[in-house]
Amino acid sequence: MKIVIGLFLRASVVLTGIALATFALLWNAPGDPALAIALARYDAIVTPDLVNEIREQAGFNAGFWPAFQAWFGPILMGDFGNSSVNGRPVLPDLMSSVSYTFPLGIAALAIGMALSLPLAILSTKRPGGWLDRFAIAVASIGNAIPAYWLGLLLILLFAVQLAWLPAMGARTPSHAILPALTLGLGVAASLTRIIRSGILEARGQSFLPALSRRGVPQNSISKDHIALHAAIPVVTVFGLELAFLLEGLVMVEVIFARPGLGSFLVEAIGARDFPKVQAAVLLTALIFVVVNLLIDLFYKVLDPRIGDHDA
Amino acid sequence: MLKLENVSVKRGKSIALKDVSFKVDAGKTIAVVGESGAGKSTLIASILNLASLASGKISWNDKPVRKISPALVSQEPRAAFNPVMTLKQSVLEPIVGQKKTLLPDRLNRLCKGLELPIDLLDRKPSGVSIGQAQRVGIMRALITSSPLILFDEPLSALDAVTQKHTARLISDLQKEEGFAAIIVTHDLGYAAAFADDIIVLKTGCVEEYSSAEEFIQSPKTQYGQDLRNAAFALGALERAS
Amino acid sequence: MTLQVFDLSAIRSGQAILHPTSLSIELGTRIGLVGSSGSGKSTLGHAIVDALRAQNKRVAHVPQSPDEALDPLRSFKFHWHEAERALDLAHDVSKQRTLFSALKIEDADLRKRPWSWSRGMQQRFVIAMALIGTPDLIVLDEPTSALDPIVAAKTMELLRDHLADKDVAMLLITHDLGLATQHVDRLIVLDKGKVVEDASTHGILVAPKSPAAKSLSTHRSWLSLPC
Question: What's the confidence (pLDDT) of residue B179?
């Protein structure tokens, strides 16, 4: 219980820090947000009076700390404020964009796991063999290819040349195939290398020869012991992997013209819609922190020695 | 003379050492025995000024011990060496800047006594066996000519025959040079054969403090007797016939 | 019955670390395999276990340290069940209780993972596990070196008492002739990967023939060292 409270406190500190940092960054960003809002709202000619009025309304005149408090206070109660461009509440828009992004992220992870796990297991059958070298080569190339380039190639092949799959939008589930594949291949590339080295390291554990001398069959040793030890480094990097995934999602949603957290963020930045940008950043940070928190807890179950100084 | 007066060390909330007092004269050896967790390594750390004392005093001829730079033989033979340096560089490191006229002779003699080929010192720690690394660790401590040498399980990685040769070499050098030695070991046979006095630690306290002869003849405490009987049962000591 | 192995050998990076060795071991006997470090004792121990397993003999091996026998991420219970399954035995609570009480494994929480028990208890658990199927031979590789002396002595005593009335052969691998003399009747002396002497313990103590046996014999006790 103590551990859970400790983790929770740490998470709150991180989130508050992130809120403060994004707010400070946007506050000090070049360009006049009030002018941008005026242009977005009225689009034609804007007078200096109009810009001033907007500045006053949005609280930009009040100074950094009052503005931060005015924004962050309500968030603690679950109120993310209203868009400074169209005046609508931020939260419903944010949630609807998440409802596109979340399944896409899960699909990408599933594709990543489905490809990397068998590939890693195959490659470790004979370390240094041709299959292993092939898998490493594929994984290295996969790691080096950026998502925006791979996404365009996939569009070119499957949407333009073969016309099997739609390229743009998110009307049907089949619209999600190409974006999920783009992300999933990237995930698979890095996971393959991690799982592979996890398995190889687990195989070097000093207690394994004793198990076979005890008569435990080889496949039970792989399943009951090696897999568990190999899982530890995989879980460790999973938190990092998520960061890459979120980053990739932004790119992929823009390329495939899909609604979602990424497009939401990019549009909000373009329009200098501060409340929206901050809400999106905070949500991303929250996902990141929560997942890492779960990983920390999972560790304690998997291997209670971790973080235990007496052991 | 090394002197510990009522030394206590805390580790977190628990007490790692409690009220430990003893003396070691120059040229003498004291052996510290006891089960794991009894505070043997904490005792070494506190003499080396690596553990802060909750109370008490440790001194060498009424001066702080660090003035005489005591040498340590670590219980982790390989981890005690810088992995990117050759063993020779590590061995010579503590005596940088000292007069080196007699050094080659001394190195040769130590290598011979420790049954190590002299070219072994040109290797890195990863290139030697753990037993060899342990003996190089002993060499590094002996070459310093420090008046106080701490041996933390110095023979644990050696086989029975090499243990005895190595113990004999340490003892011969001690007779010539007169350093004081503290040997932490759980081998009561070694302690009985080479120490003047034996201290038995149990849960941080001195359970028994006897001369080696006394201890072998008749330990004063029940725990001391248990230890001695265990040494008989393991063949580390032989009953007088 | 006699256990027999023929022409065991081992080569590591082009060098023979064990020359062809044949041995026979009578059931119910206690044998010591002694030699200096690097003489090939552990290698021969492993080779004997592997060869006898290949002959479908029941044989158990206890490594030097419990770290080499137990998966730190798995509970004692898991290890026990796994060892039973490996021998095609059903879970037998009374057998477990008998072995635990013989080796004084008391108040033990089997749901724990290895590192939460003391090393002495871990080592005794490994020995108990080795005895599940009542093997023909149990090979102990330096069983006391990772333990405190009182615990080590107690463990050896418990094992000796447990084996006293059973037809289980014991092979004790050690560099310490002093330890071996306390527990075995026959000694096999190994030097540079070769068996150089194989005789009764008493015979080797009184009249060692090979240089290796002589050296082990004169250095067996701390208090009677040659000058």
Answer: 95
